[in-house]
Amino acid sequence: MPLFQEKVFDKVLFASYNHSTTAWSAILAISAIGIRMTIPGKGLAAASDLPQSANADQYACKALSVAFDLASTSGNILAVQVLVALAMFFTCMGNMEKASALIAMAVNLAHRLQLYSKHSAQYMQKEVAEQRHRVFWVLFSLEKTISYQTTRPSMLAGAEIDIPPPSNHPLDGNGIVWSRDRRSSLNYFRKTLDLSLVLSELSHIHSIASGSEGWATRLSRTRTTLENWYKSIPLEFQLDNVLSNAREEDRMQLTKFYHAYIFALLSMHCFFSPKAKWMLRLSQHGREAAQSYATETIGFRAVRCLSQCEPPLLKPGACC
């Protein structure tokens, strides 16, 4: 995700001894995320792994200690980037309470800076304006995903956003994931954003009563959107082929990418409905285990689905 521009961040990094708390927190946040990323040949730095993981947690906590000050007193885009980076980190760690609080701070600061408005950047250099737009779309995508997972209302409304969406073919290649042989590529940034819009629509659908007027039509339309989203992914990066074609350092992000997609499918198709045939075949203990798993992975939205959801949609449910 192109949250930071490499050249700009390099300036922050090499001039850090003369910079503010914001700059130091940016370095700490990026260091924490970097340690948690897959290192080729080393595997994922898990919570139980080596001193590296402890270092990641320590860096994140130090950056977190100034998060409130960044949100309340800072007036620059770097503070937004730090808050979003920390929200990413804690989302990866499964700490959705901290992630939710951080993304809310980032949204409030982005509103103050009017990152969603093209007029706020009309007198800025083209590169600066483009970076502002990218930061906003990374924030937008993460906020929609977090609101879906935590069942909290989204803080971002599409009506007030007038900046252009990320390019499908960025000239600088930011947000692009390449296959091992570099013959195929996936615009990970844009596809993640498009998926977050589907999740946002699903959040709204789950908030209204099934069977109400327009519910089935809206669900069908959203299902078609999700199907088209998947069809637009290059064949080399689709589920059956991604492991054999993706570079090792990209696999963790692609796993999370498809995790969101699969659970959107499961949720949309009412897979965890107590009226589903597979659920009816389970013992009481098995049903409780399945429901517990659904709640942990999908979030508290699963509670309503598990108690009130209609039987799975016949054709799509069979695919699940």
UniProtKB/TrEMBL annotation:
GO MF, one example: zinc ion binding
Regions crossing the membrane: 21-39
Claim: Cell division is one of the keywords in the record: no
Keywords: Membrane, Nucleus, Transmembrane, Transmembrane helix
InterPro entries membership: AtrR-like, XnlR_reg_dom
Transmembrane helix found in the keyword field: yes
GO biological process, one term: DNA-templated transcription
Cross-referenced Pfam families: Fungal_trans
Residues annotated as domain Xylanolytic transcriptional activator regulatory: 99-172
Protein name: Xylanolytic transcriptional activator regulatory domain-containing protein
Organism whose genome encodes this protein: Bionectria ochroleuca (Gliocladium roseum)
Lineage start: Eukaryota, Fungi, Dikarya, Ascomycota, Pezizomycotina
